[in-house]
Specification:
The protein is an alpha/beta fold. Helix content is 42%, strand content 14%. Strand 1 and strand 2 form a beta hairpin. Helix 1 crosses helix 3, helix 1 packs across helix 4 and helix 6 crosses helix 13. The longest helix is centred in the first third of the chain and has 25 residues. The structure holds zinc ion.
Length: 484
């Protein structure tokens, strides 16, 4: 059917409109990127609309209606291709009496689903409801505008609740639109959208990928704070800092600021020391899976529990949780291009290499230790903080089903868990006063790792230099490594 034009208005984006040219079939490789962005746009729109509806009805929270996104877990694009297969019936942006529902059929559908997902009956609210909704919309827009002005003043030395991190992701990808895009990854158990940021300099170079996730364990608040710091540092410096400029020539950064969103929100509302996700088990008698025991690598063999009451509950099967499914499928689809997998935790001041599920060493163990040790040295130079480097089984404890081990066994050569500050004085409840120093030193360590990764593949001494075609050798190198 070719290209179809769709206009939507984004309620929580200040009311601006945007046209989308959407190909009929989102499954086509060349339109996946666009479809994914469209999915995010719709998700943000729905979320913004929910915020308004809930505000108008005096409810709290912005949970998306269950059911609306249920199919997205399987594939980012498919549910939207089914929405888009219906005729786009309206000629342009559409206004309802409250002025909030814009767009063509896909947006109409979301509005319908939104109403179906609401527990409060709409009838009986009448004209007063519409008036208060319109008024609330004005308030939200005003608030958004003031927040937008405030992005430069966004504090990277405070911990932020999830709503602010969602907002920050939208704002930062608007402000640095030339290098950052926000991508939909999947839905959490409690049907909240998961997004990652992709930092990429436009180029014809085939590029490799650095993955970084934060907040797989809910209570480790310093981790999401670091992911935000990392993104901020890259974006503020990529034009002038030759080191970052160089990295971006051949590398794209994929950053997932909060992996365990449901758990993170739970630590803000209910239990500061909650660790797991919020999935329900045993007929609602216990909650939460340890997402870092749920990956499909030696699942639940050691250092994990099958009892859902325990904090290391491994789930009902490998990759049983929507959050681990979402991460696994993205990593799997890009695994040939991912050279480095970084997962940020606290606490303990450790740089951990594979493995946790065995004392056996990975094939490039010595190299991993060397690169890790160099990173620990760079870290110490900043504020004198000591980190230890070693495999999880050697220097921490045995764990199975961790994302780090899984990533390494998928063939990703550099795979590390960072356990950030401290050593137990404050533990998970690291004071905000320590955010800056922790992030500064961690940034030094991560950049050291990235420098080494870069040198290995693109440095002057790398194998590519001697060859007539660097690309051929690089290809050989990667296929060789995947055999190890
Ligand atoms: Zn952790």
């Amino acid at each position: 059917m070719g290209i179809r034009k769709i206009s939507t208005r984004l309620p929580n984006g200040g009311g601006g409109s945007r046209d989308w040219n959407i190909r009929q079939d989102c499954r086509r490789e060349d339109s996946k990127e666009l479809c994914s962005e469209f999915a995010i746009h719709i998700a943000n729109s729905v979320q913004g609309t929910l915020l308004e509806l809930h505000g108008a009805l005096g409810l709290s929270g912005t949970r998306l209606p269950s059911g609306f996104f249920k199919e997205i877990r399987a594939d980012t694009c498919d549910p939207f291709s089914s929405l888009l297969s219906a005729p786009c019936s309206c000629p342009g942006p559409m206004q309802d009496s409250a002025g909030i529902f814009g767009g063509c059929r896909p947006f109409d559908n979301s509005a319908v689903a939104l109403q179906q997902g609401m527990t409060e009956p709409r009838h009986g609210l009448g004209a007063g409801w519409e008036r208060s909704l319109a008024q609330h919309r004005r308030e939200v827009v005003e608030e958004t505008v003031s927040q937008r002005r405030g992005l430069d003043a966004y504090s990277y030395t405070r911990y932020h609740p999830m709503e602010e991190i969602y907002q920050w992701m939208i704002q930062i990808s608007e402000k640095y639109a030339e290098v950052v895009t926000q991508h939909f990854l999947g839905m959490t158990y409690e049907t909240r959208p998961m997004y990652y940021l992709k930092i990429s300099q436009p180029s014809n170079n085939p590029k490799k990928i650095i993955w970084m996730d934060c907040g797989i364990h809910a209570r480790e608040w310093i981790a999401p704070a670091f992911c935000q710091w990392f993104v901020k540092e890259i974006l503020q410096n990529y034009k002038d800092d030759s080191r970052i400029k160089k990295l971006l020539r051949n590398l794209d950064f994929y950053v997932l600021p909060v992996l365990n969103i449901d758990g993170y929100i739970y630590t803000w509302t209910t239990d500061r020391l909650w660790r797991k996700s919020r999935s329900s088990h045993n007929n609602g008698t216990c909650f939460g899976t340890d997402l870092n025991r749920n990956f499909n690598v030696s699942w639940c063999s050691i250092g994990a529990s099958r009892n859902c009451q325990d904090i290391t509950f491994c789930g009902t099967g490998p990759v049983s949780e929507p959050e681990t499914k979402a991460v696994s499928s993205l990593i799997e689809s890009k695994k040939d291009n991912i050279v480095c997998f970084l997962t940020m935790h606290s606490f303990g001041q450790l740089i951990l290499t594979p493995y946790g599920y065995t004392k056996n060493k990975s094939s490039n163990h010595e190299e991993l230790i060397q690169v890790g040790q160099k990173a620990a040295n760079a870290l110490k130079e900043k504020h004198g903080t000591n980190y230890r480097v070693g495999s999880s089984a050697d220097i921490l404890y045995a764990t199975s089903g961790s994302s780090r081990d899984w990533a390494r066994d998928m063939g990703i050569p550099f795979s590390y868990t960072f356990e950030l500050r401290d050593n137990g004085t404050y533990g998970f409840v690291l004071p905000e006063a320590q955010i800056q120093a922790t992030c500064e030193e961690s940034m030094a360590a991560i950049l050291s790792v990235l420098d080494d990764v870069y040198e290995k593949y693109w440095g002057v001494d790398s194998a590519g230099k001697a060859a007539s075609s660097a690309a051929v050798v690089l290809g050989l190198l990667f296929s060789f490594m995947s055999l190890l």
